[in-house]
Amino acid sequence: MDSEDALRGSTAKVVELLGCQIVEGGKPRDQHLTVDAVMHEFGITRPMAREALQTLHQKGLINLQPRIGATVQALERWDLLDPDVIAWRLEVAPDSQMRSLTELREVIEPRAARLAALSRSAEVCHDLTSQARTLLALSEEPDFAQPREGAAIRQRFRDVDAAFHRTLLAGSRNELFLRLSHPVVMALNHRIDRDWAGGHQDVTVTSARAAVGADTVQSYPTRPEPIAMWLHMGLAYAVDQGLATASEAFAEAILAEIRGGRLQDPAVLDHLRAGLDEFNANGLPTAHRDGFRDAMAALVRARRAPVVVMGVTGCGKTTVGQYLAESLRVPFEEGDRFHSRRNRESMERGDRLDDRSRSPWLAAIAGRMRAAGSEEGLVITCSSLRRIYREMLRVARADAFFVHLELGQDEATARVAGRQSHYMPASLVPSQFEDLEPLQDDEVGMTIDATLPVERIVAEVQTELARHTRGR
């Protein structure tokens, strides 16, 4: 084939192909690679095969020893900051590599921001503030979200964003931070080059049903989120004002924004509030002051909607609810504890609850939701099978957000039958599905597959909650 012929004779291509094979496990750890085998596989000369293996040895993917040859190394021996290794890992396992790169950024960028503010280099301040203004302007270009017409705009945006973060690391005056600018830029570029939501034509999200499949690090939106642009603006001008705490807080918030619900983390918001207390918004260009103030006010003063984890018995409401509450750092309530003793005894006998029996239970749950402070937040479980039940809860808190854990009847029956020490028998599962009225398009919430790993479910919920909060 022509494509295969084009690869032959190119040492760089052989290095890339071998590197990808090692990264994806096609050539597993401890496998021996010989010069002859590489020559035969890629149709290249002996000197070229030797050069390719030597290059991979320098990157730590293989170990070359006299009379033994090349041996594939374990991941911990790889040069994980080598640009080629990063690129190969992004190609083969983008989710895990982006998670690792983002965690690296979370460690170094807030600290670099603090140091940059303390150094307060005139050149760095000039570049950061100019780049932040340019990013905001580019993000508001009408054609940004257009696949073809916006390509040049997105390319320009990508380049300026990379320059912004390189400038920040350089401003720290820490040579090791600056050395890490390349993996930081690769993470930035990957999101907009390879994970831009506008390039995924099959992805749709409605108000009631969230798209499933986004990882903890979100896909790059069709258009940059306004809050992300204002956070960049705040970071640039906090460095310009020499405010170490504010600079660190803005950098932390920028990274939290790409991590789904983490921007709503109380610790992140508390740190941001402390930074805003010392930040002088009048130091911004006049044209941007009102927009910045409005965006920050909406972010730090946003009400925390109570989350109701709903669904039939056995769908995992308690497990997901506890995990979600912990991740959001809000109180958790198990809805079943609000049932009267009479209700529990009825269900233990296999008797189906009617609306009259459920009414006091729903009223008690509504009371707990009403008592939750707007900044305290709450995650509470409640089957909420019928729409009328959900409307009763919305009377208590109109901002309630429902998470429907969707599960098939056979799976629900199997789960309930396998549970120990629970009053709900498997015989009542069919009645739950008879009562179930799924979330409608005009209801605030999301539906997600209850068979997904709990960590994935929670990440999806955090992402949709953050999207919902920004849209309110």
Automatic annotation (TrEMBL):
It catalyses: D-gluconate + ATP = 6-phospho-D-gluconate + ADP + H(+). One of its GO terms (cellular component) is cytoplasm. SUPFAM superfamilies: GntR ligand-binding domain-like, P-loop containing nucleoside triphosphate hydrolases, Winged helix' DNA-binding domain. One of its GO terms (biological process) is carbohydrate metabolic process. The keyword Magnesium does not apply. The keyword Endoplasmic reticulum does not apply. InterPro entries: GntR_C, P-loop_NTPase, Shikimate/glucono_kinase, TF_FadR/GntR_C, Therm_gnt_kin, Tscrpt_reg_HTH_GntR, WH-like_DNA-bd_sf, WH_DNA-bd_sf. Keywords: ATP-binding, DNA-binding, Kinase, Nucleotide-binding, Transcription, Transcription regulation, Transferase. One of its GO terms (molecular function) is ATP binding. Residues 14-72 form the HTH gntR-type domain. Pathway: Carbohydrate acid metabolism. It comes from the Bacteria. Pfam families: FCD, GntR, SKI. This is gluconokinase. It comes from Streptomyces aurantiogriseus.
